[in-house]
Amino acid sequence: MPGTGTSPRAGFVGLGAMGLPMARNLHRHGLLAATWNRSPEKAAALAAETGVPAAGSLAELAASCDVVVTCVSADQDLLDVLEALLPGLRPGAVVVDCSTVAAGTAREAARRLAASGAGFLDCPVSGGTEGARAGTLSIMVGGEPEVLARARPVLEAMGGSITHMGPAGAGQAAKATNQVMVAGINQAVTEALAFGRAQGLPMDELIAALESGAAGNWFLSKRGRTMIRGEFPLGFKVGLHAKDLEICRRMAGELGVKLPLVEMTLAHYARLPAESADEDISALFRLKSDMFPGSDD
Ligand code: NAP
Predict the structure, then answer these.
(1) Residue 84: which of 107, 57, 105, 111 has the closest Cα?
(2) Cβ(15) to ligand 1 under 6 A?
(3) Which of 25, 140, 150, 214 gives 135 a disulfide partner, CB atoms 3.0 to 4.6 angstroms apart?
(4) 237 CA closest ligand 1 atom index
(5) Are 15 and 70 in contact (CB under 8 A)?
(6) DSSP assignment, residue 181?
(7) What letter does residue 7 receive in the DSSP assignment?
(8) How far is the centre of ligand 1, averaged over its atoms, from the C-alpha of 74 (Å)?
(9) CB of 96 within 8 A of CB of 125?
(10) If residue 134 lies in a helix (H) or strand (E), which one and from where to where?
(11) Could you give the 3-state DSSP secondary structure of residue 119?
(12) CATH number of 173-289
């Protein structure tokens, strides 16, 4: 552990689209001591690949680690996982949650862990599955500075930038801000490319021209070329972004405000076919294309 001259032993819970590559980066840095996944075959496959054991239970994982990273789907999933970790957590251990949940849920998690002598950091991430693989995620941190200092080597193995935003919940508030912006960028890129295609423009050349000018952005470069082919590989699931936008809606509601981008994007996601919930958010391009008669998407 930091301060003792040894590296923290890290455990990882939630080997999904984000969690698996993040856990692999912990292993590359020699920090990964154990993993656990609800569907055990994913942890078994990672054990076969890396030699890092799959723990038999969450309490067993907690008992063997200084820092436990969680990356699960939504608020109740996180609270359930914490409940199961608690009996095994060592005094002074830190839980680093990289899921996207409400700021209030992060504060509740911090309260529950503090009562048993463990630290909690809300550490939602941005940068997509590409950033998770490359270890370049932007990590927005809420929690106590001394807890952050203990977990920092683990965060540095997964992220390219680590920004302390304030006390518990502040990381999730920053992530909610990010998700409002992602909604606007998705709206802008999908609508503009559907419009450009309806103008009969050569789409690969159009994307190359746009990305080197003032309209260039991450989403255009990473998702533009697949969406114009009617492909929406993950990425970031529509269902997960809708979950995040519900969080943004509640947080804005607490301030007495309705955010137009949030309301419009939730309404548009609801109009996508049911199977799109598991597609990348660039599937919004389907809806934008349908506005133009004769669209071949
Ligand atoms: P995912 O591929 O659907 O993986 C979800 C993971 O959570 C799986 O390992 C799943 O286990 C586990 N899980 C879900 N509910 C659980 C429960 N009740 N108990 C225990 N484990 C549970 O999702 P993801 O894309 O990795 O996203 C994970 C989190 O990161 C979400 O909060 C998401 O909003 C956030 N995020 C995602 C992205 C992205 O680009 N994908 C970017 C930034 C942040 P099973 O394998 O058993 O289903």
Answers:
(1) 57
(2) yes
(3) 25
(4) 41
(5) no
(6) H
(7) P
(8) 8
(9) no
(10) helix 128-134
(11) strand
(12) 1.10.1040.10
Fold of 10-168: Rossmann fold (3.40.50)
279 CA distance to ligand 1 middle (Å) = 14
Written as tens digits, the pLDDT of the chain (297 aa) is: 444 557 999 999 999 999 999 999 999 999 999 999 999 999 999 999 999 999 999 999 999 999 999 999 999 999 999 999 999 999 999 999 999 999 999 999 999 999 999 999 999 999 989 999 999 999 999 999 999 999 999 999 999 999 999 999 999 999 999 999 999 999 999 999 999 999 999 999 999 999 999 999 999 999 999 999 999 998 899 999 999 999 999 999 999 999 999 999 999 999 999 989 999 999 999 999 999 987 655
CA 242 from chain center: how many Å? Answer: 13
The ranges assigned to domains in the chain are 10-168, 173-289
Distance CA(92)–CA(150), nearest Å, equals 9
* Token duo for residue 128: 């997509």
